[in-house]
Structure formats: structure tokens, C-alpha cells
Amino acid sequence: MNKRLLYVSCCIIACITILSQCINKAEKNEAAFRGPQYAGAAACAGCHKNIFDTYMGTAHYHTSMPANTSTVKGSFAAPDHTFTYDSATKVVMEARDSGLFQAAYNNDVPQESHRFDIVVGSGRKAQTYLYWQAGKYFQLPLSYFVPAHSWANSPGFPADHPKFDRMIPSTCFGCHSSMVAKSTDMQGVHIVESFEKNQVVYGIDCERCHGPAAEHVQFQSSHPQEKKAMYMTRIAELKNQQKLDMCALCHSGLGTPQKSMFDFKPGDALSGYFFPEFTAPKRTAQMDVHGTQYQLFTASKCFMKSNDMNCSSCHNPHNSESNNMELFSQRCMHCHNTASHNFCKLAELPANILAKNCIDCHMPALPSANITLLTNGKQSPTPDSIRTHLITIYKEETKKVLARLKQAS
Ligand code: HEC
Ligand code: HEC
Ligand code: HEC
Ligand code: HEC
Ligand code: HEC
Ligand code: HEC
Ligand code: HEC
């Protein structure tokens, strides 16, 4: 190779190395506020590739994201981009050079408009959007409702005018992100939160569930021969209640937090994070989109009459398995099968048909009373539907399923 070429290629390599270090640094700095004990999900990919790859497809990973044309699900093109409140008032979704906006108009005169900064919700059912202004996050007036493929008035917002001033507290991020940077001030007797723009670790990442893992990464990287995990909680060795609490942190509804939900690590007890609830409303009436899966599941006979059932009895936390009823039904049949004489007692259907979908009869999707969304042009709101985790016998739902099966055949 001639010397000049060698010199040029060395320069190129040096440049690439420096550049990639800068990029790495930029990525690191973005999440640096989370603290040096965290390594970030990308650091797990090398040694846990299969888990990492499937995890990237989960609702947890996508439950909060920076807003852009690929993450916001709804339409920015006429006529679907308009939500009408009355003949004079509307909000239009606008893709501008400076970003995506919700812009209010009164008789076509521009009023308030704000940018989509953050998407909350993976978009299985719904997405809602936040904008940042002067240290606060606010929810935008319109959400996207997936079953209706339509923009919809954000839940709990007034139906007659766009509201731009609903402030969003850090608890929202506590369930929908892996960390948010905030500071708190006292104003009289009130605690006021402020946020730095873009200081969010989006999605629910590996370390949100497994706890900080920088030491684990460091150790395993410098001891590649070591096949045992160090500096990492072994979930298999936790008590069943501890395993349940790992999920119940976010799946037991909106409690009043005693300390930051971000501090929760596997092995911790949920009771240390929330004030106890003294008023226990009727279990099924408690359901809302921020589902109380924990309460409903633990009230089910399946749970009460077995010893060590937990969320992982049916869910693989690293895979997206939504809508795969046959797969979930197989998990029911680990316990409920003809050999154990506790298979389904419904006489109307043969076992091979029952086996395809235990779920629609025993865990039906029921309409939420709390979360309803008014879509464009509709007079009454549509309820979101939620899969109940109270596993029992639903006579009415069974009739519907039987009718559906009859129609299909
Ligand atoms: C240099 C390789 C390496 C990296 C990087 C790495 N791990 Fe591990 N990890 C291992 C090894 C080896 C084990 C033990 C074998 C196994 O369970 O796969 C392990 C096990 C685990 C376990 C199971 C613990 C148990 O025994 O129940 C968890 C959880 C885990 N790692 C999480 C993470 C997370 C989160 C990250 C990223 C922040 C990460 N690991 C990065 C090598 C690594
Ligand atoms: C206690 C934890 C918790 C808090 C606090 C919380 N959420 Fe949720 N949220 C959830 C859970 C769990 C789900 C999924 C529930 C389900 O599907 O049954 C969810 C679902 C959603 C969805 C629908 C996602 C989809 O595609 O299905 C949206 C949108 C949403 N939340 C927005 C918010 C906003 C905005 C806030 C703050 C004002 C908030 N949530 C506060 C736990 C929480
Ligand atoms: C929603 C919470 C959650 C998230 C997010 C999560 N895990 Fe897990 N992980 C668990 C639970 C719970 C178990 C125990 C599973 C069981 O009991 O079957 C587990 C088990 C593991 C294990 C050991 C058992 C196995 O399957 O090999 C490894 C390794 C692991 N996780 C790595 C990761 C990595 C890497 C990521 C991110 C790419 C990640 N996890 C994201 C909850 C989570
Ligand atoms: C930090 C909060 C948090 C923790 C911890 C958490 N989840 Fe979630 N989970 C959520 C939120 C938020 C959603 C809604 C995601 C979306 O936007 O669609 C969700 C959605 C889900 C879904 C529905 C989406 C799907 O993939 O089918 C399942 C199932 C689920 N979680 C199971 C679990 C289990 C099991 C655990 C414990 C191992 C767990 N979660 C721990 C917050 C959490
Ligand atoms: C870990 C084992 C296990 C798994 C997995 C399991 N169950 Fe159960 N289930 C039980 C036990 C134990 C009982 C109580 C039986 C009794 O009372 O004799 C029960 C009870 C029931 C009942 C009767 C409830 C009532 O209120 O009378 C139904 C229906 C049921 N299970 C359906 C299901 C479905 C559907 C699934 C899957 C989504 C499932 N089970 C998964 C163990 C399990
Ligand atoms: C007996 C099996 C079983 C157990 C145990 C179980 N789930 Fe589920 N879960 C399901 C099935 C089946 C679905 C419906 C899946 C679908 O519609 O794609 C579901 C759906 C969900 C959803 C999405 C709800 C919706 O309507 O979008 C969440 C969130 C969830 N589970 C969380 C949990 C948590 C947290 C636990 C533990 C407290 C848990 N599950 C325990 C079977 C189970
Ligand atoms: C078409 C709706 C439907 C489907 C599908 C279905 N079940 Fe059932 N199941 C019922 C009804 C209704 C009963 C009550 C039957 C009776 O007592 O006459 C029942 C009874 C049961 C029982 C007995 C509860 C008791 O009283 O002890 C269990 C356990 C059960 N089902 C589990 C399952 C499992 C597991 C599957 C999937 C393999 C399944 N079921 C599929 C509707 C259904």
C-alpha cells in the first residue's frame, strides 16, 4: 500500500473513532441524569441479544417516545386532521417545519397552538400527547383513539372547548417512563414540580424492572468466562409476593406514592412505595385504563387456590404476545386439563374449540367506566375496553361468544 493511502485511511479511521465516541457520549449524556449506576438498555444487547430484540417490540418499550411523524399515530392530512367542537371552534393537527402541532381556531382565526413533544401510550389502544413549556409538562387536548382510528377529546377534558392547561405530574412518568429529571419547590403548602426539557429516559427499560445494572455490565464484560450473573437480583429466588409487586408497582391503579416510584427495585415491597388505601371500592368498579390487574387477578380463584401464581404464569415480560388467544389458552391448560379433571365444564363446545380461546369467556374485554373518549362528530363517548383479570364465569359473555361461533360456522 502506498504511504499516502495509508496516511489517509489512518485519518479516516481516527475520525470515525472520534466521531463514534462523540455519538456515544451524546447518547450517554442524554441519560446521564439517571445516575452512573445505570447502564442503559443498549448495553444489554451484546450479551442478552434475544431478549433485547423481542423486548424492542413490546408495549413497555414504546409506552413513551419523543413525538415525531413516525411515533404519532393520528393523521395530519385533511379532512381527518380536524377535531370539531362546534361550528366555530376546532383544533387542527398541523405538521410544520418546527414540528407537529395542535392548533386551535375560532371562526378560522388562529388561537392557541402547542407542539407535540412527548407521546404517552404505545398505541395499542390510545395515545395522548404532552408539550413542555417553562419547566412544566401539559397534556394536549386531543388524543388518538386506535379502535376508532380517530382523534378524540382527551379523557376527562371538556367537550365544548380545547383546554391546553392540564398540567402533568411526575407520577405519569413514574408508570410510563424509566426516569424523568425533576426538581421540586414549595409554594405555600403545595409542592410544585419542574422538569428539564427532554430529560426523559423513554419507555420502560430493562433496568426499570431489573434495577440499576452498570456494575453487572462492568463485571460480566471484564469476566467473559463467568456464566453466573453477578450484581443482579435473581428474580427466580424472590418470594412470590415480591415478584407480584414488581408488576403491581404500575399495574395496581393510581395510589398515592410515598416515595419516588423510580427507586423501586426487584425485591422491594410495594407497601413501602404507596400509602395504604383505606377505602376499597368494589373490585370490578375500580377498573380503568390504568388497569388494576393486580387487584383483580389476586381476587381470582386461580390465584387464591394455587401457591405461586404470578403475572409471569401467563405473561412473558420480554415479548409482545398481545391478541394471541391460543397461546394464552395453552397457559391456562398448564393447570386446567382433562388429565387433572379440572378442564372447562361448559358442555356446549368440544374441547378442541374451547382450547382455542378460554380468554373471551373467562377474561372478557369489558368497557371501562372511567376512560371514555369522544371521537370527532360523535354525540356520546366510546368507552375504552379492558381485559378483566378477574378470572371467573361470565354467563352473558359466554352467550355472546357462542352466538359468534354459531354465526361463523
Ligand atoms: C458482558 C455480558 C453481559 C452484559 C453486557 C449484560 N449481562 Fe446480564 N448476564 C450476563 C450473564 C453471563 C448472565 C448469567 C447467565 C444468564 O442468565 O444469561 C446474566 C444474567 C442476567 C440476568 C438474570 C439474573 C438471574 O440469574 O436471574 C439479568 C436480569 C440480567 N443479566 C440483566 C442485564 C441487564 C439489564 C443488562 C444491561 C443493563 C445486562 N444484563 C447486561 C452477562 C451480561
Ligand atoms: C399507576 C401507573 C400509571 C399512571 C400513574 C399512569 N398510567 Fe397510563 N397506563 C398505565 C397502565 C398499566 C396502562 C395499560 C393498562 C391497560 O391496558 O389495561 C396505561 C395505559 C395508558 C394509555 C393507553 C396506552 C395504550 O396504547 O393502550 C395512555 C394513553 C396512558 N396510559 C396515558 C397516561 C397519562 C397521560 C398519565 C398521566 C396523567 C398516565 N397514563 C398515568 C399505568 C399508569
Ligand atoms: C416489565 C419488566 C421487565 C422488563 C422491561 C425486562 N425484564 Fe427481564 N425479566 C423480568 C421478569 C419478571 C423476569 C423473570 C421471568 C420469569 O419469572 O419467568 C425476567 C427475567 C430476565 C432474565 C433471566 C431469565 C431469562 O429469561 O433468561 C434476563 C437475562 C433478563 N430478564 C434480561 C432483561 C433484559 C436484558 C431486558 C431489556 C432488554 C429486560 N430483561 C427487560 C422483567 C422484565
Ligand atoms: C414502570 C411501570 C410498569 C411496570 C414495572 C410494569 N408495567 Fe406493564 N405496563 C405499563 C404501562 C404504562 C403499560 C401500557 C403500555 C402501553 O403504552 O401500551 C403496560 C402494559 C402491560 C401489558 C399490556 C401490553 C402487552 O404487552 O400485552 C402487559 C401484559 C404488562 N404490562 C405486564 C406487565 C408485567 C407482567 C409486569 C411485571 C413483570 C409489568 N407489566 C411491569 C407499566 C409497567
Ligand atoms: C397455576 C395454575 C392455574 C392457571 C395457570 C390457571 N388457573 Fe384457573 N384455577 C386454578 C385453580 C387452582 C382454581 C381453583 C379451582 C377450585 O376451586 O377447585 C382455578 C379456578 C378457575 C376457574 C373457576 C373460577 C370461579 O370463580 O369459579 C376458572 C373459570 C378458571 N380457573 C379459568 C382459568 C383460565 C381461563 C386460565 C387462563 C387465562 C386459568 N384459569 C389459568 C389454577 C390455575
Ligand atoms: C391467568 C393468566 C394471566 C395472568 C396470571 C395475568 N394475566 Fe394479564 N392478561 C392475560 C390475558 C389472556 C390477557 C389478554 C391479552 C390480549 O388481549 O392480548 C392479559 C392482558 C393484560 C394486560 C393488557 C390489558 C388490556 O386490556 O389491554 C395487562 C396490562 C396485563 N395483562 C397485566 C397483567 C399483570 C400486571 C398481571 C399480574 C398482576 C397479569 N396480567 C396476570 C392473562 C393473564
Ligand atoms: C364459550 C365460552 C367458554 C370457553 C371458550 C371456555 N369456557 Fe370455561 N366455562 C364456561 C362456562 C359458562 C362455565 C360454567 C359451566 C357450568 O358450570 O355449566 C365454564 C366452566 C369452567 C371451569 C369450571 C369452573 C368451576 O365451576 O369449577 C373452568 C376451570 C374453566 N371453565 C376453564 C376454562 C378453560 C381453561 C378454557 C380454555 C381451555 C375454557 N374454560 C374455555 C365458558 C367457557
From TrEMBL:
Swiss-Prot/TrEMBL keywords: Signal
Please indicate if the UniProt record lists Signal as a keyword.
yes
Protein origin, superkingdom: Bacteria
Checking Pfam families in the record gives: Cytochrome_C554
Q: Does the keyword Signal apply?
A: yes
* SUPFAM superfamilies cross-referenced by the UniProt entry: Multiheme cytochromes
Question: Which InterPro entries does the record match to this protein?
Answer: Cyt_c-552/4 (IPR023155), Multihaem_cyt_sf (IPR036280), Multiheme_Cytochr_ET (IPR051829)
Domain Cytochrome c-552/4: residue ranges: 170-211
Tell me which stretches of the chain form a coiled coil. Answer: none
**What PANTHER family would the database entry show?**
C-TYPE POLYHEME CYTOCHROME OMCC (PTHR35038:SF8), DISSIMILATORY SULFITE REDUCTASE SIRA (PTHR35038)
Q: Can you say what this protein is called?
A: Cytochrome c554 and c-prime
Q: Which organism is it from?
A: Chitinophaga rupis
